[in-house]
Structures are given as structure tokens and as C-alpha cells.
Amino acid sequence: MTINGKAYIAGVYEHPTRKADDISLAQLHADVAKGALEDAGLTKNDVDGYFCAGDAPGLGPLSMAEYMGLGKLRHVDTTETGGSSYVIHVSHAAQAIAMGKCTVALITLAGRPRAEGMATGTAPRNYGSAAPDVQFEYPFGPTVVNMYAMCAMRHMHEFGTTSEQLAWIKVAASHHAQHNPHALLRDVVTVEEVVTSPMIADPLHRLDCCVITDGGGAVVVVHPDVMKRLNRPRVKIRGAGEAVKLQMGGTIDLTYSGARWSGPIAFEEAKVTPADIKYVSIYDSFTITVLMTLEDLGFCAKGQGGKFVSDGNLISGTGKLPFNTDGGGLCNNHPANRGGMTKVVEAVRQLRGEAHPSVQVKNCGLALAHGTGGSLGTRHGSATVILERE
Amino acid sequence: MATKARTIPSVPPSPDTKPFWEATAQGKLLLKKCRACGQLHYYPRPLCPFCGSDATEWQAAAGGGVIYSYSVMRRAEVPYAVAYVTLDEGPTMMTNLVDCDFDRLKIGQRVRVVFSPTDGGAPVPTFTTVP
């Protein structure tokens, strides 16, 4: 059983807002759902499968299905793996469609951390004392930035990776973001500007960190028979893989991510190799997230990520592997502190030829989107999908 | 030299971790050892995460280790160093590095456990560099 060729992405939408002071969380979900369904040429009455994660308010799919008037659901899925959830949802939607459980699957994400003044990366999060790790971690104040920073520190120690190499990832994202009118940060930055920006948590500077934004996005995954009726470019789901990376009782290795496992599963299902991929959307909560993921997916050898991303190699038009051409989480948008959805959306834009002309990859027939949700190194979901323009 | 200390928040113990926190109050760091597979694990739990056996028992760690990785939180009111320390017994644990120069920390550096007070709960195992 495979999902290769069993489902298509028919609609995508990214909310244009980056600060939603006057829009409720529920309305953001409904707005993006409407946007993606209109993009596909469908309506809410066509939706028979609904997917959402922990960002959905109230009782999740029960609250949101009522609010949006989804009266024909026969399949729901609330897989929660942080920011990677929505990449997994694409895969699970394809599985459900292949199994005959639904024909039009709607996936939504939304959040307003900026309007709510959330200290996203600089205050330790307490998930409640029932979470078994909280007693042994929360007292030590591990912020999200610290957790990713410790991966970067260890990577530097083992492989000689430098802050300047990490900075190239932000530089490339900024080159792309200048063309995106909705991007939060549109100024092109230099390596020097990244490494001289204020240190947040050693060795990650402010410009190594993604933006904090409100908004959201949605994706509509459909059965091939539905796709045939729609007058939209055909973006086929070729393969997908998912994995979780843990601390495994204290046998911690911070130098690799779950992409080491999710990538090969996706490539095998899609029957392609990293060399076939024309464009990648790589989750970029921090610069180190991108570097480790590119290594783990096999775009370069382990430890060579620093060299691989240097000298503009991720910049569309000049580099060898264009990435995050919307500006990514580092410059454009990281709605709800969860970047998986926008990774899928920009990959679909590239495959349709609907990316900004300045960053559109020529003959973009095969793209990969990858999500990393949770804490890099010690507890995260990794999700890879491979998509093809048919 | 970072000499100021931050206030460390405490988290109430759960039924299965009470012995751990009673031990820290006595200046002891406990690990869990599985009698079935022989492996040590951390953070401690009643069922071994490696083999699933419920035959786990507490074992005191000697208190020595090396820095596996660290990151100084510069954006806090009082900067502090979060770290993973690999104990001589094997497991790697999250902790804070205290009473040391944050600008001279290095991966691989030797450290020893010192117990730091919390805001009303049991002290927590932190580590300081060994000269």
C-alpha cells in the first residue's frame, strides 16, 4: 500500500496578516479554510475530512467543524507533533483518501502569538507537572532557543560548523523575502549583520531565530477523481515519511534530527533521490534546524551542512538548492509558532509556477517539504513530503 | 564572572519520583537502573525505557561528568547556562551550570554536581566546573 499518486493538493492558502489584533483564532481558521477551498474551486460542503492540531481552539475539530459549518465529515485527524503536524496531516490525508475514508480533506492552522504577546522563544514553557519531563527540565529554564542552541553548539563542536555558515541560511531567506510583500522582514541582510545581531542564547543570535507572527494557512488534499474535475494545476503527492526523535532515557545525541528517518521513507515511496529535487521547503525555526535537516535528508553528507549552505547556495536563481522562496519562518511568517503549513504552501506555489517571478525555480517539477516540530535533538516530530507537478 | 544566581522554580514531585527529590535534599543524585537489562536511565521512571521491565531500582550517581552541550541564555534578566551533562555512569541529563565563568565554558569540560536551592521545593542537581 502506498500513497504515491493516490491524492493531490488542490488548494492552498496563506493568510496575509502577520498581526491579528482584531481577528479571533476561530475566524483565522475559517478564513484560511475558505481561502484554500476557493483556491481549489471547492466549497465547505465538499469537505468530508478535516485535520487540525493543537492550535485549533476548544475541542479542536468538534469546535472548528461547528464554527465553519462542516456538516459532512466522515473522517477527522488531530495528530499533534508541534509545527510539523501539518506536513504529517498532508500524508495522513493522502492515506485516508487512499483508504476511501474521505475524498476532500481540509487541513487548517492558525494562531495569534504576537497579538497575545507570547514570549515564544525566550521564556521556558511549562507544559504542566503531569508532563513527565517537566520536573527534570523546567527548573533549569530551557527556552526554545536554548534547546536549539545546544544542538548548534554540539554541531559546531563535532563538525566545526561556524556561526558564519549558519548565517548564510538567514541571508538566503532574506534574499527571497524581499520579493514577498506579506513578509514580516523584507530587508536583505548580510552574514556580518546576522553574526553581530544580539546574542539570544549562545550560539544563536537574534537573526538566527524565526519571526513571531499571527495568521495561518490551509491545504486541501483531494482524491484523483475530484482533482480531474477541478481546473487547477495538478500537484501529486508522491511520497511521505514521518518519525519522532526522542531523548531515549538519557542517550541523547543532539547532532541529528528525525529527518534521518523520515527522509528515506519519503524518498523510497516517491521513488526519487535528493538529486531529483528542484526545490525544498525546510522548516526554519532557527538556522540550525535547516542545516541539520539538509544533512539528515541526504542533500549533503553529515557534518558538511555548513559548507553546503555557504556562499548563497540556498538562494533561488544562483544557488544549487533553492529553499524557502517565500522567505520562510526566518523572514516571512511562522504563524502560531508552527511553520509546517507554510512549508507545504510555498512548495505548492513553486510546483504550480505561482511563486514570485524573482524566486520561481525554472522547470520546478519535483519539490520536498519538511517539518520539524517540538525540540530539535530531544523531542520532535519530523515529517517529509515529496510533491510532483503532473 | 557570572556570580548572580537566578531563582530556580520548583515543580512538585509525582508519586514515582518522590525518592529522587528526597535524595536531592540529602545531597544525592539518583539514577534508575534496570535489573532486567542492566541499563541506567534518566530522567527516572518506574518502567525501563529500554526493555520495558518494571524491575527498576534507584542507584546513586557519583556526581561527576562532562559537559555534552550548553547554551547561555543571554536574554534573561540574570543570564544562566542551560546544559546537558553526560554523567560518568552514562546517562546525559539536563541541568544548569553554576558558579562558573560562562564565557569560558567548553564542551567536554569536567563538572561535578552541586545542589541548588529552589523557590520552596527540593533542591535541584546543577553542576559546576572542576578546576
Q: Could you tell me how far the N terminus lies from the C terminus of chain A, measured between alpha carbons in angstroms?
A: 21 Å
Radius of gyration of chain B: 15 Å
Assess the beta-strand content of chain B as a share of residues: 35-45%
Number of strands of chain B: 8
Strand content of chain A: 15-25%
What's this model, at a glance?
The complex is a heterodimer of chains A (390) and B (131). Chain A has 390 residues and is of the alpha/beta class.
Provide the descriptors you would attach to this structure in a database record.
heterodimer, A: 390 residues, alpha/beta, Peroxisomal Thiolase, Chain A, domain 1, 9-stranded mixed beta sheet, two-stranded antiparallel sheet, 12 helices, 32% helix, 18% strand, globular, B: 131 residues, mainly beta, OB fold (Dihydrolipoamide Acetyltransferase, E2P), 5-stranded antiparallel beta sheet, 3-stranded antiparallel beta sheet, 1 helix
Description:
- The complex is a heterodimer of chains A (390) and B (131).
- Chain A is built from twelve helices and eleven strands.
- Chain A has a nine-stranded mixed β-sheet with strand order 3-2-4-7-1-8-11-10-9, with helices on both faces. Chain A has a two-stranded antiparallel sheet with strand order 5-6.
- Chain A has one domain (8-117, 210-389): Peroxisomal Thiolase, Chain A, domain 1.
- In chain A, strand 5 (199-201) and strand 6 form a beta hairpin.
- In chain A, helix 5 crosses helix 9 (287-296) and helix 8 packs across helix 9.
- Chain A is globular.
- The model of chain A has no long low-confidence stretch (mean pLDDT 97).
- The two termini of chain A are 21 Å apart.
- Chain A has 390 residues and is an alpha/beta fold.
- Chain B has 131 residues and is mainly β.
- Chain B has one domain (17-129): Beta Barrel (OB fold (Dihydrolipoamide Acetyltransferase, E2P)).
- Chain B has one helix and eight strands.
- Chain B has one helix at residues 18-25, and strands at residues 30-34, 40-41, 56-60, 64-73, 80-87, 92-97, 110-116, 124-129.
- In chain B, strands 6-5-4-7-8 form a five-stranded antiparallel β-sheet. Chain B has a three-stranded antiparallel β-sheet with strand order 2-1-3.
- In chain B, strand 1 and strand 2 form a beta hairpin.
- Chain B is globular, with a radius of gyration of 15 Å.
- In chain B, 38% of the residues are buried.
- The A-B interface holds A 122, 126, 129-130, 132-143, 145-147, 149-151, 153-154, 157, 198-204, 247-252, 254 and B 6, 8-14, 17, 21, 39-43, 45, 48-50, 68-76, 80, 82-84, 90-96, 107-108, 118, 124, 126.
